[in-house]
Amino acid sequence: xxxxxxxxxxxxxxxxxxxxxxxxxxxxxxxFVKKPKLGGxxxxxxxxxxxLWTKCPKCTTMVFDKELDENxxxxxxxxxxxxxxxxxxIHSLVETCSFEEMDAEMVSVDVLTFTGVSSYASKLAGYQxxxxxxxxxxxxxxxxxxxxxxxxxxxxxxLGGSMGSVVGEKLTRLIEKGTEKSLPxxxxxxxxxxxxxxxxxxxxxxAKTCGALAYHAKAKLPxxxxxxxxxxxxxxxxxxxxxxxxxxxxxAMIGFAGPRVIKDTTQxxxxxxxxxxxxxxxxxxIDAIVSRKDMKNQLIEYLDFMSVxxxxxxxx
Length: 316
Ligand SMILES: [Zn+2]
Known about the structure:
Blueprint: H1 2-20, H2 30-45, E1 53-55, E2 62-64, H3 65-70, H4 86-93, E3 100-102, H5 120-131, E4 137-144, E5 147-154, H6 165-181, E6 185-191, H7 199-218, E7 223-232, H8 233-236, E8 245-248, E9 254-255, H9 259-266, H10 277-282, E10 288-289, H11 292-315
Parallel strand pairs: 5-6, 6-7, 7-8, 7-9, 8-10
Antiparallel strand pairs: 1-2, 3-4, 4-5
The structure holds zinc ion.
């Protein structure tokens, strides 16, 4: 298998290569230089045909995009887990046509009329257009195996998966729906933290989501938190770290402050593998590391196990 994909790789590169040889543009006469320059620029862009191959950052293999998509965005050579969009992930977890989305149209209000390099309003509009989503989380009720589950999935491509009032509100409503309907909650996180464009309004979401989860826990309902690359800051410091079960994808970066900030503050050398899922599993912060391909089956197994307890406690 490895050899076939290797030939594929070289084939792709070879086909791309002839286009790379740009005419040498060191001619002296300006009239002659201008024309080849245009051609040279174009062919340089074609060095790696865009949207066909992706270079794996871990093993540096060129992976055929179609192969990567079919493999749930996991490198077939080294099992590196690429980031995956919320829709794709939901599709990989729930039974076909079983997902009913909630609050799909909820959008942020620019309360602070925040303006930095560009305004928050224009950033929101830009990301809404490029991702086709209204904000950084998709929530709804779907079936995972036999279990109806309140599922919230974050999307890093929307403003770094940052948690503003929409992310907080949508997740809170999802959790409250779970409490109301006695359903388990599964939240798959990926986030750079609270959304600075919303100031305190985004920080308030930490307490709000955790408050809703506390009521959900009081009703003895299971909450599984899945941490994916990266889960940091305000999200890690709130709902992502309070799961009854906390699982992570292999190699995911998980932490509160980034390693550089910690290193600068403590002035200490950080241990190897610091803030990776594997490091945190070793130290008991997370309960299991589950690869993306096993995620659905593993979630079903956990939900089976947790609902047995649920049924027992309902009886007792
Ligand atoms: Zn790889």
